[in-house]
Design goal:
There is one protein chain. The chain is α/β, with parallel strands linked by helices and 138 residues long. It is built from 5 helices and 5 strands, in the order βαβααβαβαβ. Helix 4 packs parallel to helix 5. The two termini are 24 Å apart.
C-alpha cells in the first residue's frame, strides 16, 4: 500500500508534471504527499563562498518552488513540505528512507542532443539506488 509519496521538486517543467501525477496517485491511494526541495549547495561552498544574502535568496527560491507544488495538491490530499541543502540525489534517498516513503515520484530531464533519451543524473541515481519504487515522469 502506498501511504507516503516523496516528491522532489526543483521548479522544472518535468518536476511540475511529477507533482501533478503524484497528486493523482495520492488521491487514489489516500496517501500523503511530501514535497522536498534540495538546494544543490555543499557545505564547503556554504562556509567558503556564500554570503548570507545568497543563502537567503536560495532559501526564498526553494520556498517559491514548494508553494507552487502546494497549489497543485488535489483537494482532500494531505501534504507537507521540506527544504534541504546538499547533493540532491543523496538527500532525496536519505530523506525517502528517513520518512519511510512508499514511492518517489520525480521528474526527469533531457541531456543535450539526446534529450528525451537519457535521464538526468539525479533521477538516474535515485532510480538505481532507491529502496522504494520510483516513478520517473517525463
Amino acid at each position: 500500500m502506498i501511504k507516503k509519496i516523496l516528491v522532489p521538486v526543483d521548479g522544472s517543467e518535468t518536476s511540475d508534471r511529477a507533482v501533478e501525477q503524484a497528486g493523482k496517485i495520492a488521491k487514489i491511494c489516500d496517501a500523503k504527499l511530501i514535497f522536498l526541495y534540495v538546494a544543490n549547495i555543499n557545505q564547503l561552498a556554504i562556509n567558503a563562498f556564500l554570503t548570507d544574502a545568497i543563502l537567503a535568496a536560495v532559501r526564498k527560491a526553494g520556498e517559491v518552488i514548494l508553494e507552487r507544488a502546494e497549489k497543485s495538491v488535489p483537494e482532500g490530499v494531505e501534504y507537507e513540505t521540506h527544504s534541504e541543502t546538499g547533493a540532491p540525489a543523496v538527500m532525496i534517498l536519505d530523506y525517502a528512507e528517513e520518512i519511510g516513503a512508499d514511492l518517489i515520484v520525480m521528474g526527469t530531464r533531457g541531456l543535450g542532443v539526446v534529450k528525451g533519451v537519457l535521464l538526468g543524473s539525479v533521477s538516474q541515481y535515485v532510480i538505481e539506488q532507491s529502496k522504494c519504487p520510483v516513478l520517473a515522469v517525463k
